Each structure stands twice: as structure tokens, then as C-alpha cells.
From TrEMBL:
The keyword Oxidoreductase applies. The keyword NADP applies. Homodimer. It comes from Rummeliibacillus stabekisii. PANTHER family: THIOREDOXIN REDUCTASE 1-RELATED-RELATED (PTHR48105). Binds 1 FAD per subunit. Belongs to the ferredoxin--NADP reductase type 2 family. Signal peptide: none annotated. One of its GO terms (molecular function) is flavin adenine dinucleotide binding. It comes from the Bacteria. This is Ferredoxin--NADP reductase.
């Protein structure tokens, strides 16, 4: 049996920083993540600027994520991607963590870092739509330059749709926003910005049909229904912002099921310990008084949880890791880095 000290379920910011900190505390660590890529919800705002991460100059989501992943890999945790954890049970002091493919992972402790659960964009319910995801049907934006001088149809009326429309104003040739309801739900000032720029905003409007080009490789026109009437719109690309589904499907053997509140968040009894000894929770999935549901909050949780893990496994251990500036682990690397700085 390949036994780990700690298995982290979820590879978002909370899970990633937990993995780094586990390395600081000499714990044999594994991360299990549902998606093929790490980063959790940061993947849905890769293009946006982040201003509120301590010690960081304003930084784009993508660059922030790259740094976060690089830091998480410092102590080379084992990574299992494309794996959804379905069930956790415990026997003889060892947790068995099972994925939906039937794989079993064994661990002395578990850190739950599943955020709001598995995030998936709500997709268009139109037969065959998925084949255009390879070309000009998008559910998120991974590079705005792609839309330079393009005609773009955005479907959605919430903050995500309208924020993207505002960001694309100086880049796209033409923007059309359609929304099924009779009023946009996004922040007033952003809506005003679109209106001031003369963006076409069609309310009470929904996509009916996607019409392919002659090669059947991309969408050429879209039929929309506005107040019961069909219109055809020409566009280069379509962005769908209809929100996200979150699936929180993780379950536990009855005798070890940690207490969760009405919102399914794990209740911390202090230091990110759940009500079940050996199971800890961090990031957006944990609840305690004064919890901060931001990136900075995830880092704080990770330190608390990993220190709790260390004490659970080795009750004699120090409560905290030695600060990094004095930590022997970094001694050699520091010499290299300082030499690079001084040359
Ligand atoms: C649009 C948007 C903008 C934001 N902007 C900011 C900002 O500017 N500043 C800021 O500080 N915060 C911001 N936040 C909040 C920040 O993104 C979250 O606080 C942070 O991502 C929480 O990290 P997490 O690791 O707890 O959860 P998540 O980021 O949700 O990561 C959880 C991970 O767990 C995985 N997972 C879930 N269930 C399972 C399972 N059963 N098996 C395996 N893996 C599983 C998921 O796939 C996911 O990768 C923003 C959030 C959103 C949605």
C-alpha cells in the first residue's frame, strides 16, 4: 500500500498552497484534482487583473496561477489529475479515498480543498453545439487577442458576460449582447459603459439555432428569437456566459462524515480541523467565524490545516514550520538565487 501522510482533495489555490506548506513540514503529499489542469476557479478569470493578493503587484490571473503552481510543486507532491473523489472511508487509522474510476488512494490524513465543488460552465442545449468548441464557440476567454477586429456575439446578462463585453470593447470590431430576460443583471456602471459605447444589447432574446459554414467546421450565423420573432445574426465568434454548475458530490462513510452547515460547507472546530479527527478543510469549502472567502483566506487556511495535520500525525512536532527565511530546506537554493540577484 502506497501510504501518504496527507492527501489533498482539490487542486485550486487552497489545495495548491496546502501542498507547498506540506512540503515545508516534511509530509508525503498527494493532490487529487477532477480537472485535467490545476488552479480551480482561477481558471475562469485568467485574463483578469488581481489587485488584492498580499505582496503582489497587480497581476493577471494566468501569471498568478503559474506562480502558485510552481510554488506548489517545490517539494514535488504526487499529482493525480482527471480524478473525481467520490467517497472517503476509514479503517485501522487509514483513510481510503476513492475516485469515480474506482481507484483507491491511502492516506493518514485528508485535506478537503474542493472549493464550491466541481465548476463546469452551463453549456448550450443545442444538438451538436459541442463540436464548435474547437473553433468559434467559447465558454470562457483564454486570450483576448484572439478577438481582435472580430464580430462577437455574447449571450448572458450577468457580471461575467458584461465584464467580458467591457474588456473586449477596445479589441473587438463589433459586439452584440443578447440576454433572455428583460433587464441585464450586471453592475450598473458596466452596463452604462456598454450603452455609452453603442453596443447592441438585445433583451428578451435567446439563441435558437447555430448555422454552420459550408465545411461544417465553425458557426457562420446564429438564429436568435426576440419577442417571438427569429432574426439571423452574422458573427465571427460566440461567447456563452450562462453561469456555472457546481457539483459537490463528495461523500463519506457515515462514522467519519464531518459536520457540514446548511450550505454544505465543512464546519471548522478551529485550525481548519473538521469535526472528524484526521480530516481538515480549507478554502471556499470551510466555514468558521470571520472566514475570508478570498485567495488570501485560502493561504491562511492552508497553513492552519497543514500544521494541524503535522500535529495529528506527530503530536510532539512543533506547532508551526520554521519561517522560510531561516529554513534549512531553502539554504542551498537561496545561495543560487542570491548569486543570480548579485550578478
Ligand atoms: C469570477 C471570480 C473572480 C474572483 N476574483 C477574485 C479576486 O480578484 N481576488 C481574490 O482574492 N479572490 C477572487 N475570487 C475568489 C477565489 O477565486 C476563490 O476564493 C478561490 O479560488 C478559492 O480557492 P479553493 O481552492 O478553495 O477553491 P476552488 O478554486 O474552487 O478550487 C477547488 C478545486 O477542487 C476541485 N474539486 C472539487 N470537487 C472535487 C472532487 N470531488 N474531486 C477532485 N477535485 C475536486 C475543483 O475542480 C477545483 O479545481 C474570485 C472568484 C471568482 C469566481
Amino acid at each position: 500500500m502506497d501510504l501518504y501522510d496527507v492527501t489533498i482533495v482539490g487542486g485550486g489555490p487552497a489545495g495548491l498552497y496546502s501542498a507547498f506548506y506540506s512540503g515545508m513540514r516534511d509530509l508525503k503529499t498527494k493532490i487529487i484534482e477532477f480537472h485535467p489542469q490545476l488552479g480551480g476557479k482561477v481558471n475562469i478569470f485568467l485574463e483578469k487583473m488581481l489587485w488584492d493578493v498580499g505582496g503582489q503587484q497587480p497581476i493577471q490571473g494566468e501569471a498568478f496561477l503559474k506562480n502558485l503552481i510552481q510554488q506548489a510543486m517545490t517539494f514535488e507532491p504526487t499529482l493525480c489529475l482527471n480524478s473525481k473523489v467520490k467517497w472517503i472511508e476509514k479503517k485501522d487509522d487509514i483513510f481510503t479515498i476513492m475516485t469515480d474510476s474506482g481507484e483507491k488512494h491511502y492516506s493518514k490524513t485528508v485535506i478537503i480543498a474542493i472549493g464550491g465543488g466541481i465548476f463546469q460552465p452551463i453549456k448550450l442545449e443545442i444538438d451538436g453545439a459541442e463540436k464548435y468548441e474547437m473553433t468559434n464557440l467559447h465558454y470562457t476567454i483564454n486570450g483576448m487577442e484572439r478577438f481582435r477586429n472580430k464580430e462577437l456575439l455574447i449571450s448572458g446578462g450577468g457580471n461575467a458576460a458584461i465584464d467580458w463585453a467591457c474588456e473586449l470593447l477596445p479589441i473587438a470590431k463589433k459586439l452584440t449582447v443578447i440576454y433572455r430576460s428583460d433587464d441585464l443583471k450586471a453592475h450598473e456602471s458596466q452596463v452604462k459603459k456598454l450603452k455609452d459605447h453603442g453596443v447592441d444589447i438585445l433583451l428578451n432574446t435567446e439563441i435558437q439555432t447555430l448555422n454552420a459554414n459550408a465545411q461544417k467546421t465553425a458557426i457562420e450565423t446564429v438564429d436568435i428569437m426576440k419577442n417571438g420573432e427569429i432574426q439571423t445574426i452574422m458573427m465571427d465568434d460566440i461567447l456563452i456566459c450562462h453561469g456555472y454548475n457546481h457539483e459537490v458530490s463528495l461523500d463519506f462513510e457515515n462514522k467519519i462524515a464531518p459536520k457540514r452547515n446548511d450550505n454544505q460547507l465543512f464546519e471548522s472546530i478551529g485550525q481548519c480541523k473538521t469535526t472528524t479527527p484526521g480530516i481538515f478543510a480549507v478554502g471556499d469549502i470551510v466555514s468558521y467565524e470571520d472566514k475570508v472567502y478570498l485567495l488570501v483566506g485560502t493561504f491562511n487556511d492552508a497553513v492552519l490545516a497543514v500544521n494541524s495535520v503535522k500535529k495529528y500525525i506527530e503530536p510532539e512536532a512543533n506547532s508551526y514550520a520554521m519561517v522560510s527565511s531561516h529554513n534549512e530546506k531553502f539554504h542551498e537554493k537561496n545561495q543560487q538565487l542570491l548569486a543570480e540577484i548579485h550578478t
